[in-house]
Each structure stands twice: as C-alpha cells, then as structure tokens.
Specification:
The structure holds two protein chains of two kinds. Helix content of chain A is 0%, strand content 53%. Chain A has no helices and eleven strands. In chain A, the strands form two sheets. In chain A, strands 2, 4, 5, 9, 10 and 11 form a six-stranded mixed beta sheet that branches. In chain A, strand 9 and strand 10 form a beta hairpin. Chain A starts with a strand and ends with a strand. By secondary structure, chain B is mainly beta. Chain B is 0% helix and 53% strand. Chains A and B meet through strand 5, strand 9 and strand 10 of A and strand 4, strand 5, strand 9 and strand 10 of B.
Chain lengths: 109, 115
C-alpha cells in the first residue's frame, strides 16, 4: 500500500460546481499536511496548509481527519481556471514531504 | 525577488553521460530537496539536505548524486548508472514555520531527455 493515495480522476465538473478530493495516508505519525496545485508542465505551487482545525481560503476549504487518516480539499463555485492537478503532500517521519500521485480536475464551461 | 531557480530548463543527455542540474535559492532556507516526476505520476524523492555539508538519500537515490557545499545551492548529478533518467526534475526548499510546519516551495523544474 502506498503511503499517500489519491484518486487520479479526472474529475470533470461544470463551472460553478462544488467538488471535493480526498487524500488518504498510512503513517499515523504524520503531522504536517499540504495541498499543492500543479498546472500542466509546471512546478507544484502551494495552495494551502491543512491544520487540525481545518482551514479556509476563499473558495477553498481543507480538512484533516486523523481518525480516518485522510485530508480533503473542497472547492466551491469552480472556475475554469481551477482546472489543474491537485497534489497532497505530508511528512512521513522525515523532513521531506511525501506526495500523492495527484487528482486531475477539469472544469468545463 | 526571492525564489528558487533551476537551470537549464531543458537538458539532453547522451547515453553514458553524466549531467548536472543546477538549483539555487535565495530564500535563506536551510533544507533543500530533489524530486523526480514521471508523466502522470506524483513526485518521488531523490535526495534531501537539511543543512550545509549534509544530505540524505530519498526513495530513489540510485544513479544520482548531490552536494551541498553552500546553503543556497544543491546541484543534482544524474550519472550514467541511472538507466531511465527521462523525467521532470523539481528542486524545492523549505523552512520551518513558527507553527512547526515545514513548508516546501518548488523551483520551475528541469526536463531531462535522453538522446
């Protein structure tokens, strides 16, 4: 079993829709969690950190569920510009992050 | 502007050749990392360095080597022992936030192709 797993998608949603992705992890000692956005042929860019209490940044909400060992990303009112691959990353006992394979989102007009 | 730079953007390697990818950061970050990304896949850790003159192997270190002689520089050499080097190589750096989280930022990447 991979340490960090994501549904690869693609998630095809219409503009204005709400979409949610999950990312499951196997290392219960993980303490730091992140969501990154990666556009085609570009580097990942930090979207948001994920805190135990959950956090929100505009249309984006991230949640952490330690009991079930997953993090989630909710995008409300999807825009065409949200089309990208979303990577989850977390520490797994070393200072470097371990990443999932990414979930591809395609927002359609 | 503070940031991470990688060069070259594209690199072509001949069979049996060693090539070196450059990564420089002016963010004053202690830790630096190298990841490899294959098409449609996530990032896999090659090497990382938490401090100058020290580095650790990641999950796929075979066929690669690094050095960390300066805080701002972490070059990666892809040796001839790496049999399938074609990939997108991403360098990252991080610092610990006041909340204790290690937030990583990425450079623009280098695409390596084998001729």
């Amino acid at each position: 079993r991979k340490e960090v797993e994501q549904d690869p998608g693609p998630f095809n949603v219409p503009e204005g829709a709400t979409v949610a992705f999950n990312c499951t992890y196997s290392n219960s000692a993980s303490q730091s969690f992140f969501w990154y956005r990666q556009d085609c042929r570009k580097e990942p860019k930090l979207l948001m950190s994920v805190y135990s209490s959950g956090n929100e940044d505009g249309r984006f909400t991230a949640q952490l569920n330690r009991a079930s060992q997953y993090i989630s990303l909710l995008i409300r009112d999807s825009k065409l510009s949200d089309s990208a691959t979303y990577l989850c990353g977390m520490d797994t006992g070393r200072r470097a992050l371990t990443f999932g394979s990414g979930t591809r989102l395609q927002v359609q007009p | 502007d503070g940031g991470i730079t990688q060069s070259p953007k594209y690199l072509f390697r001949k069979e049996g050749q060693n090539v070196t990818l450059s990564c420089e950061q002016n963010l004053n970050h202690d830790a630096m990392y190298w990841y490899r990304q294959d098409p449609g896949q996530g990032l896999r850790l090659i090497y990382y360095s938490q401090i100058v003159n020290d580095f650790q192997k990641g999950d796929i270190a075979e066929g690669y080597s690094v050095s960390r002689e300066k805080k701002e520089s972490f070059p990666l050499t892809v040796t001839s022992a790496q049999k399938n080097p074609t990939a997108f190589y991403l360098c990252a750096s991080s610092s610990e936030t006041s909340g204790g989280q290690e937030t990583q930022y990425f450079g623009p990447g280098t695409r390596l192709l084998v001729l």
